[in-house]
Amino acid sequence: MQSLSYFTLLIVITLFAFSIVQSKKAVDETHCEVCIKTIGTFFESLTDDEKTNPEKIEKGFKKFCSKIKVDSKEHRLCYYIGALETSATYAIGDLSKPLSWGIPIEKVCRERLSKTNPQICDLKYEKQIDVNAVDLNKLKVKDLKKILSDWGESVDFIEKSEFIKRINEVKDKYVKPAVDTNKKDL
């Protein structure tokens, strides 16, 4: 009987330790990055009085969103939350109330707003490709097209080799050469 309770205690401790390890998973910094950055910028613009009043937060966020560039990730976030005239939903309360209570922005975005609309956390900023540091042959055609279109160059090629050739032809016009840090000053 004594060994049975010892065994049960051992299982309980093992499960408890396992649950602690599982709860300490690293947070993906790109998860909800648009939401966190946009709401962080907005929240910093508020006065201390406004930060504790849900109605003022809602009104301020609508005003903030009305000034954001259309077709940007931030504009899409405002649409999802319901801060635009054209928004199909209205989830500003899920933003304003927790913020007024002092809940961290990361928690508001990743837990509260993503429950209402999971698309909020799907918004991500596009990463810039360092042409000097990457092997162009290993990139997808989609990425090669993006490099050229970001530079304002024509992208009407068919073959991957044509994209790579064009990037190499115009690269010096758009990208500064990589600095060799191995060279020592004489």
TrEMBL record:
One of its GO terms (biological process) is dopaminergic neuron differentiation. It comes from the Eukaryota. Gene3D superfamilies: SAP domain, Saposin-like. InterPro entries: ARMET-like, ARMET_C, ARMET_N, SAP_dom_sf. Residues 32-129 form the ARMET N-terminal domain. It is found in: Secreted. Pfam families: ARMET_C, ARMET_N. SUPFAM superfamilies: SAP domain. Residues 1-23 form the signal peptide. Keywords: Disulfide bond, Secreted, Signal. One of its GO terms (cellular component) is extracellular space. This is Mesencephalic astrocyte-derived neurotrophic factor homolog.
